[in-house]
Amino acid sequence: MRTVGFLGAVDVLAKASSITLARGYVRSLLAGHPDVEEIELLVSELVASLDLSRSSFGRLSGSAGS
Fold first, then answer.
1. Which of 21, 8, 13 is nearest to 53 (CA)?
2. What is the pLDDT of residue 47?
3. Pairwise CA distance, residues 18 & 49, whole Å
């Protein structure tokens, strides 16, 4: 298995539509990867499970590879 380094980061607003944005971002980063659909699902679950009400200034900040 090949290890991949840092691919990118994205800040999203703390609202439900951020799930779609995060999935699209991951899809664009991993275009052509055989497991992109499973990775998109993981990202959407991660964003959905965040406590959006506690994010500062209504934004969620994250980075890949952290």
1. 13
2. 84
3. 12
